[in-house]
Amino acid sequence: MLKKISRKNAIHVMLFYTGGCNGCDIEVANVAWSPRYDLEQYKVILTWNPREADVLAVTGPVLRRTIEPLKKLYEAIPEPKIVAAVGSCGVRCGIFKDFGGELGDSDEVLCRVDEVIPVDAYIPGCPARPEDIIAGIAAGIPLLLER
Amino acid sequence: MIELILATIIIPLAALITGFLIPGVERKVQARIQQRIGPPLLTPGFWAILKFFYKEKIKPNSPMPRLFHSLPIIGIFVMFFAVLFTTPEWWSLNALGTVVAVVGLLKVIEFLFMAIGSFSRSILSVSMPYADQIKGAVMKGDYRRFFEQQSVLRAFKMITVGSFPLYLAMFVPVVLVKSINFSDIVQFQGFDASFIYPGGLIDLMYLEKILSLKPILFTFPGMLAGFVFFVGYIMLLNEYPFSIEKAKSDVIEGPSLEYAAWARGGYYLMRESILFALSSVFITMFIGLPPTLNLPLLLVHCLLCLIMPILFSIVSAFSPIFTFKQIYPVSMGFTALGFLAMIVSLLAVM
Amino acid sequence: MGENARKDKAEVEVPVGLLHPAMLEPYRARFFVEDEVIVDCELTLDPYHKGIERIMEGMPVHKGLIITERICGICSHIHLWNGTRAVERGLKIKVPERADYIRVIMAELERLHSHLIYLAHATEVLGHETMCMRAFTLREDIMDLLYIISGNRVHYAVPILGGVRPRCDIDEYRLSELETRLAKLKIKIGDYANRVVNDSMIMSRIKGSGVLTKEEAIKYAAPGPTGRASGWGVDLRKKMKEYKNFDFNVIVLDDGDNKDRVVARALESIEAIKIIEQALESLPEGPISNRSFELKEMKFSTSYIEAPRGEIYDSLALDETGRIRNYQNRTPTLTALAAMEVACIGDQLTDGMLTMASCDPCLACTNRAIVVENGKERIFTEEDVKSLIRRGL
Ligand code: SF4
């Protein structure tokens, strides 16, 4: 009971850029920092420390250089945790995979986020709108309460 | 004896409850300055801590995990004792109810930040799995330093330069009263035994009594010292603008990076108790209203304790982080101001 | 590297990165410090490498240009415009004047939003959350304008071969909306800049730290506002035919420290508003796109453009079916950060991070250069980059 109320009332979000185009990253930072959206009024706090986080927001496809750090960061977050894949890049590699160039896909773009770590909330859009990001994180909260 | 035990239980409880509010009030004030709504009052101080207690316990990345985890608890207890030393019920344990004892405890806190930092090895800097050394830089570092260790160095410097203002300011009332005992200091300001256990609980008499106090803060040396104390308070707490020890722009969170789950909750509690204890000591020494078992007075005391955090959150909303380039002169300036307060109070006594 | 000023041994190395609040985007910085003072710095910029050139190879040009937009999520319009411009120059497609005006308006709006992100980011790294949030508040207005014109908050997709997309035409409503909001914004940005410059606490941090001299700026080819803040007054907009109708100043400052880099951006934002106002005033009537061209084989065509953060270079060729061949792109952050490697030497560590942020790094577009030699990866060293720049420029 107290567990659920406390979890509902304080959610720490962490942001990791695995390799999108920056658009989604700025939008997530924007949601937290711009007074118009003000994530904190919904009791969601942006943090940069995996040990503190509950929600890991991942933007972008997983690249060869960022796969190891992504795994490590995911491990560093204590349970319960949920992962939100932000932007169409996070959801299905967006424009950087399967787009039909002659040489095929790039070797550097490895895979979707949910092939590396379990993803709970998918927030599509290129870039995901701030309202969608808030809604997406909110959609993940019930999962957080259950665990 | 019974009062001693009661005070030992009730006053830390009051401190805890006020402590829960302090971060929320701080955030709210800042948020209003930043023209946004900001988190609810209890979210950062209470629910967040409770949430951390419900998280999975993990083994921290630390050479001495147990000691690392126990440090915040030590900090909490130390700060509770600092508050208790100022209560009238503890004055009977004579040697402890002195300014010197509280100064000693504050030194422990300063040291704790160093200890915490040196036992922590966060993933965010050196151990980030990323191949950066193979590139063959011309330059070689002998030793790769974690963020926490960098912030330990800074904490060490802050102990030497940053704590002068606070301690100087704390000794100004001592000079004025010519005693290091809290009992003498508060009696000097008009607090007497009649405050402690008067008849009824709710009585407008209290208000009159509080108004009849003659706080040191409203004398000239007291005002100077109060100002210097305020700056020293921010320095000891490592808040903006003196938050070089946990500057977000380079060491992220400083020493506390590796705390997770309940230990992180403990760390936040420790911070809250430091916030409360320091403002409580200030109220006792400069206003002359110690925390007592008398509940209305205790309530007034706790409310007064919120003033300092509100003030410093206003200051911190308008200031960037200072590097040591700025901290040295600022600290020197306030140390000089502290000395001035000291001299003025010496003159006043003579 | 290899100057006399640089020693080859430091006591301690503080690696910063991949995930860091002051960087936002992943890159790895190794600061070699003695106590708190930086004696050297090395950056590794490759985590974002996606191989966009390779994805683009052989893609139909309309489709491929959409990818150029996704190179960067901050200056997306400029990338698309430059790619389009390269093709238009190669195929000699005539762009109607109104389309050029609309492109310029978008580019300047984007410059505004990029500079405001910069101000927000720099003040955040400074530790001044309030100023950061105020910059974001200002930026939201511009995002609204961009949204009104293009229908998306970041990737606007305004230019198309031969003009601009019909949905992005500037009609009555958009025109009046732009005019009223920009007039307000001009005052607000001026106030904001004044507030920053008159704050003694902020100035004590940013004044005199991270100095990049003019010689160093030229040597490392620090582009755009970064170079202009060091007194190297190159602005490609002065040379572009799209901008020849507009009257604006090139902001050149002399000190080359963090303060100048901040101030340069603030002043440039006001110049950008001026350009937009002029463009709105004299917006020519007429068609907004010229669709009478045919895609044919095209030899190499290049285009330089002044992006918010510096110069962007695009070059590409088309084959006979209109598919992209050998796309190449160079973005400003590469050289800007290389210059910052030098600029931060001698500062405090905290100031060093500020210096890194103060060149407005944008890593998403920069990480495209990895050389594979004998099956092993080699990252460009500074020498390589310099020689590349010599060849490229
Ligand atoms: S989804 Fe779009 S905006 Fe987001 S990172 Fe990918 S390309 Fe950029």
From TrEMBL, chain A:
SUPFAM superfamilies: HydA/Nqo6-like. One of its GO terms (molecular function) is metal ion binding. Its cofactor is [4Fe-4S] cluster. Keywords: 4Fe-4S, Iron, Iron-sulfur, Metal-binding. Gene3D superfamilies: 3.40.50.12280. Residues 21-138 form the NADH:ubiquinone oxidoreductase-like 20kDa subunit domain. The keyword Transferase does not apply. InterPro entries: Complex_I_20kDa-like, NADH_UbQ_OxRdtase-like_20kDa. Belongs to the complex I 20 kDa subunit family. This is Hydrogenase subunit EhbM.
From TrEMBL, chain B:
Keywords: Membrane, Transmembrane, Transmembrane helix. The chain crosses the membrane at residues 66-85, 91-113, 155-176, 216-236, 274-292, 298-318, 330-349. It is a multi-pass membrane protein. InterPro entries: ComplexI_Subunit1 (IPR052561), NADH_UbQ_OxRdtase_su1/FPO (IPR001694). It is found in: Membrane. Its main location: membrane. GO terms for cellular component: plasma membrane. This is Hydrogenase subunit EhbO. It comes from Candidatus Methanofastidiosum methylothiophilum.
Automatic annotation (TrEMBL), chain C:
Keywords: Iron, Magnesium, Metal-binding, Nickel, Oxidoreductase. Ni(2+) binds at residues 72, 75, 362. This is Hydrogenase subunit EhbN. Mg(2+) binds at residue 53. Residues 126-294, 303-368 form the NADH-quinone oxidoreductase subunit D domain. InterPro entries: ComplexI_49kDa-like, NADH_Q_OxRdtase_suD, Ni-dep_hyd_lsu, NiFe-Hase_large. GO terms for molecular function: NAD binding; nickel cation binding; oxidoreductase activity, acting on NAD(P)H; quinone binding. Its cofactor is Ni(2+); Fe cation. Fe cation binds at residues 75, 365. It comes from the Archaea.
